[in-house]
Each structure stands twice: as structure tokens, then as C-alpha cells.
Design a protein that fits this description.
mainly beta; YerB-like fold; 10-stranded mixed beta sheet; 7-stranded mixed beta sheet; about 10% helix; globular
Length: about 325
């Protein structure tokens, strides 16, 4: 059967049979993982995430929010501050939200919401189980979450339900899409300081992430290096890369001055899915606030992800996109 029929031992985030099915009997854990400053690289735990979203924060920079369900990471991070966008991920995956505090406008919003019992921030003592990382990193970017101790810590929160949530699976199929539109590289540029690409690896039928190593300011040439995981020693790979065009907006002029964005990942919007070395135009859909997005055609037919890890690149609704041969380019724009 080409389309996966999910069992209780199947991870709904990846469509794969879980190596550790007991981990599926809990809530997922969504962790903010920084990408800047460049000295934080390589980060820890990113290669163990099932789903990762990258989005613009401010000052020309992006950040990851990585969702862990089928795996635990002994060190996930460096953990950094939250944004309004993270609410979408916490709700869609019914996850614990791990972050290193936030702007008061954002933090107060979360504290006053129904997510407050599922917020995980550094505090006194060993619960939540944050740890200090290697001394090679600066102290501000040196906080990590230890997921191996997370379950016992959360069990002490009597008001928190850590039972397996009813997460709907994405559409998965081992069959490649029926298209002849090839895509070898996926370039995304959020600013002159933050740019990257995904390289398709035919021998693995996966994509490898390459990240900038310098700014493009003062007419410097682009330079890249593989993004790797300090915890596992592995490169960052994805089975699917999806580019989502999403409305970015400011609630008022004060938020605009500080670049405090609201990124409206609800309803639907344009998208592209990259899998098996090919590109498929798509529509992202989020009809339910507490379920992951789905990709469909413009007529509403399912578009299937390859079973495995998915990275979502969130760009602005007015962002540029074009192809040069089998290379695809996306440039983020302010709203």
C-alpha cells in the first residue's frame, strides 16, 4: 500500500514506525533553537527533531522551533526566546513549548493564555531539566534542555496532562509525486546576513542543509558550510522541505518599530513542497487550530509528504520566488 495507514506505533509527524514507541505516549516537545550568532553553531539535537519550522524573528535573522516526538535529545539547544509565531506550533502539535523567556509583550500573552501550564522556561533547581552547555559557547547562548529527564520533571506538575494527544497525521506516501519538475537546490535568503540552501542528495533521496558563514554586506561573496548537530555529529537532513508563504504583520506602530511580528499561520496560503528531488506547487491548510497543517493541490486533493523529517521554511506572503534551471530561490520581504 503506497499511502501509509497509521498504527499506534506510527509517528504521526513522520509517518514512520517509531523506534521508541513508548515516546509517543506523551506530548511532543517544541524547542526554540537559535541559529545566530554564528558562534552557536553547531547546535545540539536538531538532527533528532521530527518537524522543524524556520521563520524570521527580527534584525534580519531567523530561528528554529523544532518539534521532538519520536526521539529524545539529551541536549537540545541552545534554547532562546519565544515569539508570537511559536503559539501556532505549540497548538498544532499540542506540545510543551520550551523557550528562554521572551519580550514582555509576548511572555505576558503566553502567561495569560490556556498554554500557560505547558510553558517550559529556565528556573531555579533542576526542574525543568535545563543544563549549561560546553564552555566554548558564550553564557547567553549556553542553555540546553535535557529531554531524558523531562518526563519525570513534568510528572511533578499535577495540573498538566502529559498523555498522548490526538494528533492527526499528515498525508504520507512512499511514492514520489507525479511531476517532471526537478529541483536540485532550494535557496532561501531572509537577509544579507541570513541565507542558506538545501542540496538534494540522490544517493540518499534526502536534502542536506548548508548555512551561510558570512554576511553579504560590502559586496562579499556568498559562502556556505554544512549545518551539523553537535550532539550526534550528523549533518542536518530532511526528507521534505516545504516553503510556506504566510502573512507577516504588526499589531501596532510600536510593534513595527521593534519588529514584533505576528505571522498568521492559520487558514490557508501558497506553498511549495520539495521531495525526491522534485518540486510540487501546493496550498497549505490549517482548518483546525489544534492539528498540523496539511498540503493540498489548489483543488483540495492531498499532496503527500515522503515519510520522514520535514523542514518548513516560513517566508512572507510577498516574498520573491523563481527558478534557475533546477535551482529554486526564495527571498523574504518585509510586509
Amino acid at each position: 500500500m503506497p499511502v501509509f495507514a497509521l498504527s499506534t506505533n506510527t509517528n504521526p509527524l513522520t509517518g514512520l514506525t517509531a523506534t521508541h514507541p513508548e515516546l509517543l505516549e506523551r506530548r511532543p516537545i517544541a524547542v526554540k533553537i537559535t541559529l545566530f550568532p554564528r558562534s552557536v553553531r553547531p547546535q545540539s539535537g536538531l538532527s533528532l527533531a521530527d518537524v522543524v519550522y524556520e521563520y524570521y524573528i527580527e534584525a534580519g535573522l531567523t530561528r528554529f522551533i523544532a518539534v521532538f516526538y519520536g526521539n529524545n535529545a539529551e541536549m537540545a539547544g541552545p534554547v532562546r526566546s519565544g515569539r508570537f509565531f511559536d503559539e501556532h506550533i505549540a497548538r498544532m502539535y499540542q506540545a510543551f513549548f520550551v523557550f528562554k523567556y521572551a519580550d514582555p509583550r509576548v511572555y505576558d500573552y503566553y502567561q495569560d493564555s490556556d498554554l500557560k501550564d505547558y510553558l517550559v522556561v529556565p528556573g531555579n533547581g533542576a526542574c525543568p531539566p535545563f543544563l549549561i552547555g560546553p564552555t566554548k559557547r558564550d553564557t547567553y547562548n549556553n542553555i540546553f534542555l535535557n529531554m531524558l529527564k523531562f518526563k519525570d520533571c513534568i510528572a511533578k506538575r499535577k495540573s498538566v496532562d502529559n498523555a498522548r494527544p490526538p494528533i492527526r497525521s499528515s498525508f504520507f506516501s512512499i511514492l514520489p509525486p507525479q511531476t517532471d519538475q526537478l529541483a536540485n537546490r532550494i535557496y532561501t535568503r531572509y537577509s544579507l546576513d541570513d541565507y542558506s540552501y538545501w542540496q538534494y542528495l540522490p544517493d540518499q533521496n534526502r536534502y542536506q542543509r548548508y548555512q551561510e558563514t558570512n554576511s553579504l554586506r560590502n559586496y562579499q561573496a556568498a559562502n556556505y558550510a554544512p549545518l551539523t548537530d553537535d550532539l550526534t555529529g550528523l549533518p542536518i537532513l530532511a526528507d521534505n522541505v516545504a516553503v510556506l508563504f504566510v502573512q507577516h504583520r504588526f499589531a501596532n506602530k510600536f510593534d513595527e518599530e521593534d519588529e514584533v511580528f505576528h505571522i498568521d499561520l492559520y487558514g490557508s496560503g501558497d506553498a511549495y513542497l520539495f521531495r525526491d528531488g522534485m518540486i510540487v506547487p501546493a496550498i497549505w491548510n490549517r482548518p483546525e487550530l489544534d492539528q498540523p497543517i496539511l498540503l493540498t493541490t489548489t483543488q483540495g486533493a492531498p499532496i503527500y509528504l515522503k515519510p520522514g523529517v520535514t523542514f518548513y521554511q516560513v517566508v512572507g506572503k510577498t516574498s520573491e520566488s523563481w527558478a534557475e534551471g533546477t535551482d529554486w530561490h526564495f527571498i523574504w520581504h518585509n510586509p
